[in-house]
Amino acid sequence: MDRFLIRGGKPLHGDIVIGGAKNAALAIMPCALLTSETLSLKNMPQIVDIKTMCDLIHQHGLDITIDDKDPHHYSFKGDITNTEAPYNIVSKMRASVLVLGPLLARCGKAKVSLPGGCAIGTRPVNLHLDALTALGAEIEIDGGYINATAPKGLTGTRFVFPFVSVGATENTVMAATLAKGRTELLNAAREPEICDLVDCLIAMGAKIQGRGTSHLIIDGVDALHGAEHSILFDRIECGTYACAAGITGGELRLIGAKTEYLGSVMHALEECGVEVFQEENAIRVRRTGSLRGIDIMTEAYPGFPTDMQAQFMALLSISEGASMITETIFENRFMHVPELNRMGARINVHGSSAIIRGVHSLSGAPVMATDLRASFSLILAGLAAAGETSLNRVYHLDRGYEAVEKKLAACGASIERIKS
Ligand SMILES: CC(=O)N[C@H]1[C@@H](OP(=O)(O)OP(=O)(O)OC[C@H]2O[C@@H](n3ccc(=O)[nH]c3=O)[C@H](O)[C@@H]2O)O[C@H](CO)[C@@H](O)[C@@H]1O
Ligand SMILES: C=C(OP(=O)(O)O)C(=O)O
């Protein structure tokens, strides 16, 4: 298992190219199952989760090619030869469940392993199943698998999500594009990644209204066609590197990012003393003064994203005064707290809230990554800490961040991957 060795205390300065959004790409790749024509996707991040989704889609029968000249440009084409998503792939990555809606809509049947829980929470898929059932699917759970059939095809419906779910919205929108008649989804998620999915589906010939709102109207069509689509920039990768500029007291230009998608993250950065400027095709972030404590509550978009919670926890651990972070999306997303405390942070967890009492400095330590964003919070702490931090279990990070050590080292960080 690889680990990172970080020697902290160096302010970061330079340019970082922000890649395509992991969470948009993972939702958009299954759209390839909705057509027999070519779906061509540009600006794909080079991360392990994309490889996992490729493995899944390939075993459903599609061919995947990566452009010789552009490793971020993928093409998907072929007919579905297998409607089963096996446990050995789904268990690696929960987003695998996003093939369920497309397979069902296109083939009238799908057998998808239940994803199970993960380090940050139990993460059931009941809303995905309820919404697909409302579209006419018959669903049974057997032997750890979701067996879904729609022998007469799916039929448009009106479905109100009892609470907001990104994945359930995505699965249902994809399925509804090929259903008979109109589907109305209320209380749908409206994350920018869902807008990106809707844009791709519209480019494929889908009829969708309400993009960016919680009320989506989808008029089913007989077939979708091929399309070319460029994946939206990763607002979480962007926010993460903005925290790196903030925690080290440096200045970074984040190429390809736009403040319009950062919303609550940008306000939180500014409130705690990190300046953010939109430039042409980049965001500039810098900190010259001290950091101030703030309160944050994670919420569905446009609220503060849970995927930025751990990184802000690191930033707030060296901010003046006390801060409170309340996590409302996942029940177990404070696994980084004991590791940050081992580096000298003063954080106490009370139920779904964490109180962070800012300390003057952190000190390097051996720490262990527990999930993707927790891993980066420990890198951030390591970049600011005095001395050496050894971060174990880097494979969590490789799931969702491209070339972390190269991007950070190019801006002056001392970070090295130790292979083992
Ligand atoms: C690949 C991808 O895009 N992942 C993102 C997606 O995950 P994901 O799509 O899994 O997240 P959801 O929005 O569905 O989950 C939100 C909450 O609803 C619960 N829930 C969800 C579905 C369901 O059927 N039943 C249920 O109870 C979950 O356990 C969680 O507590 O959105 C999350 C919330 O912004 C992000 O943290 C993840 O990075
Ligand atoms: C929780 C995350 O991803 P996933 O839903 O793929 O586990 C994340 O990106 O922080």
Automatic annotation (TrEMBL):
PTM annotation (2-(S-cysteinyl)pyruvic acid O-phosphothioketal): residues: C118
Active site: residue positions: C118
Residues annotated as domain Enolpyruvate transferase: 7-408
Keywords of the record: Cell cycle, Cell division, Cell shape, Cell wall biogenesis/degradation, Cytoplasm, Peptidoglycan synthesis, Pyruvate, Transferase
Compartment(s) of residence: Cytoplasm
Biochemical pathway: Cell wall biogenesis; peptidoglycan biosynthesis
Top-level taxon of the source organism: Bacteria
Catalytic activity: phosphoenolpyruvate + UDP-N-acetyl-alpha-D-glucosamine = UDP-N-acetyl-3-O-(1-carboxyvinyl)-alpha-D-glucosamine + phosphate
Residue numbers binding phosphoenolpyruvate: K22, N23
EC code: 2.5.1.7
GO process annotations (BP): cell division; cell wall organization; peptidoglycan biosynthetic process; regulation of cell shape; UDP-N-acetylgalactosamine biosynthetic process
Molecular-function GO terms, alphabetical: UDP-N-acetylglucosamine 1-carboxyvinyltransferase activity
Record: residues binding UDP-N-acetyl-alpha-D-glucosamine: R94, D307, I329
PANTHER family, alphabetized: UDP-N-ACETYLGLUCOSAMINE 1-CARBOXYVINYLTRANSFERASE (PTHR43783:SF1)
Record family assignment: Belongs to the EPSP synthase family. MurA subfamily.
Name this protein carries in UniProt: UDP-N-acetylglucosamine 1-carboxyvinyltransferase
Organism the protein comes from: Commensalibacter papalotli (ex Servin-Garciduenas et al. 2014)
Gene name of the record: murA
